[in-house]
Amino acid sequence: MDGRAVTAMHDRALDEYFAEFEPPEGLRAELLRREILLTGGTDIVHNRIVSDVTAQIPHDRWHRFATQHLSFPEELSKPQPDLVVLERGRCEGSGWLVAASDVTLLLEVVSLRSADRDYGLKRSIYAAGSIPAYLIVDPYDARCVLLTEPDGTGEEADYEVQRTVSFGVPLRIDALGIKLDTSRFGTLPAVTRPRRP
Fold first, then answer.
1. What's the rounded Cα separation, in Å, for the pair 22 and 33?
2. Are 74 and 100 in contact (CB under 8 A)?
3. 3-state SS of the chain: helix, strand, coil percent to 5?
4. CB 59 within 8 A of CB 176
5. 3-class SS at 7?
6. pTM
7. Pairing assessment for the beta strands 105-109 and 133-138 based on DSSP bridges
8. What's the CA gap between 183 and 70, in Å, rounded?
């Protein structure tokens, strides 16, 4: 058996295992490029931001799903973003996965433990999945980063356009046809972290 066959067999087994995996109560599980990641609960500031963003996305045009797993055709990843936005009429069936091709925007709110994943690994995974818009809201830096125009494949994938605004400055999100009011987003105490783009 060659290396590719062994990798394919391993990937299938991991994918099947993750589909049946029940995380311990209070934890959330994600599969990110062949690694299962368990994370704990979120801060109230985090939850308010998700709620504020959700409330500004017109319900009559968009589905707004919190903590919904996604599937990517060329990735062994099943992330669970803080918010998944897709046009009404897409993904009308049932199941625990939404296809990346149905998604218009993903939101991640940065936590102390998620910063590297949100700005790095997930940015690459979402770009590789051709997610049109990826919004990172960072309550530690009091800023929003909107990434659009995904390009590339695999670990080299990235977004070609990045727009950054400080909290309090409206952020135009063309993919949804809205101007996001960021003035009510709460902040968390600044911490020393590696510099972000």
1. 19
2. no
3. 25, 30, 45
4. no
5. helix
6. 0.87
7. parallel
8. 30
